From TrEMBL:
InterPro entries: Cro/C1-type_HTH, Lambda_DNA-bd_dom_sf
Domain HTH cro/C1-type intervals: 10-65
Lineage of source species: Bacteria, Pseudomonadati, Pseudomonadota, Alphaproteobacteria, Acetobacterales
One matching Pfam family: HTH_3
Record organism: Saccharibacter floricola DSM 15669
Protein name: HTH cro/C1-type domain-containing protein
Length: 126
């Protein structure tokens, strides 16, 4: 993820919605200084949960904010193939398919799926 794309997308979407940093931070339940640091490039690795909150307020997906919305399974597969030797595989076909499906979900579907995963993990921990 390049922060430049993230900064540009957040700024553009804030302008489209007519909101400032303070309102964005308030609606995303984040500190205003954290949002400011992201927008000024001081936050080098903003966490995915914060980006998710910003995306929700801005009416888009995390992928759109970070510039991954046009990536599909075949592109992931192609990228992975270019970095592996013929005998290695970073991701299975199933993992790539799961990522592709995940990207097609809307935020509330993702939240539901995360809840299911957490419930399964909790049962295994017992």
């Amino acid at each position: 993820m390049t922060n430049e794309h993230l900064i540009r997308e957040i700024t553009r979407r804030m302008e489209e919605k007519g909101i400032g940093q303070k309102r964005l931070a308030l609606e995303a339940d984040l500190k205003e200084t954290y949002v400011r640091d992201i927008l000024k490039g001081k936050s080098k690795r903003p966490d995915v949960f914060s980006i998710g909150r910003l995306a929700q307020v801005l009416g888009c997906s995390i992928e759109e904010l970070v510039g991954l919305s046009t990536v599909n399974a075949s592109q992931v597969r192609s990228s992975v193939d270019s970095f592996k030797s013929p005998s290695q595989s970073l991701y299975t076909e199933e993992e790539i398919a799961i990522v592709d499906l995940w990207r097609s979900l809307v935020p509330n579907q993702r939240e539901h799926l995360i809840g299911l995963f957490e419930a399964i993990a909790d049962r295994r921990a017992v």
